[in-house]
Design goal:
single chain; alpha/beta; 4 helices
Length: 180
């Protein structure tokens, strides 16, 4: 008799989601931190409804990708984790051409993922296509980088303030966050 689950195209029983939160908490404890990493988790999350239809909105891209730093070692798609490529202040760069940003500085599961397709973690080309097809009004002239230095206080009090100011300066009334 055939197992009905085989007909449903179920994944193998060992093919389970990776428990990232537990893994990162264990990693921080292994590094010697007294307490496990505390994930930001708020009772209330601010939400602002769009003031214009998306097809009439200027959309900014906010990313955690880092600008390429030639002197910071391997940052290519197959690079190992590279702390030297981290950045510690929010930045803004033009969307013209193909910006050279990388993600070797973020702690991703490099055994099961790849950074080869830039569009999967830096969707600027997709935003430009959406604008060209009238799905969004336009893409803001700059994208903005949010550091991943893991300090909740610095993120809230400095990085978010700087990025919001830059997004507003660009006249954007919507933003897409591509966290890596």
């Amino acid at each position: 008799m055939t197992d009905p689950r085989d007909e449903l195209d179920f994944a193998d029983e060992h093919d389970l989601p990776i428990p990232y939160i537990q893994r990162i908490s264990s990693y921080y404890q292994a590094l010697g931190y007294a307490k496990p990493y505390r994930w930001a988790q708020y009772r209330d999350v601010p939400f602002t409804a769009l003031t214009h239809p998306l097809a009439e909105s200027r959309v900014a891209l906010v990313t955690t990708a880092a600008p390429y730093q030639p002197d910071a070692g391997d940052q290519g798609p197959g690079a190992a984790y590279n702390a030297a490529a981290k950045f510690y202040r929010a930045y803004s760069q033009s969307i013209e051409g193909e910006p050279d940003v990388r993600i070797s500085h973020v702690g991703i599961d490099r055994a099961h993922t790849s950074a080869e397709d830039t569009n999967t973690w830096f969707p600027l080309a997709q935003l430009k296509r959406l604008a060209a097809h009238g799905r969004i009004g336009e893409v803001a002239p700059r994208f903005h980088g949010a550091p991943t230095n893991r300090s909740h206080r610095v993120t809230i009090e400095q990085d978010c303030v700087d990025i919001l100011e830059a997004v507003r300066a660009d006249g954007a009334n919507a933003a897409v966050l591509a966290a890596n």
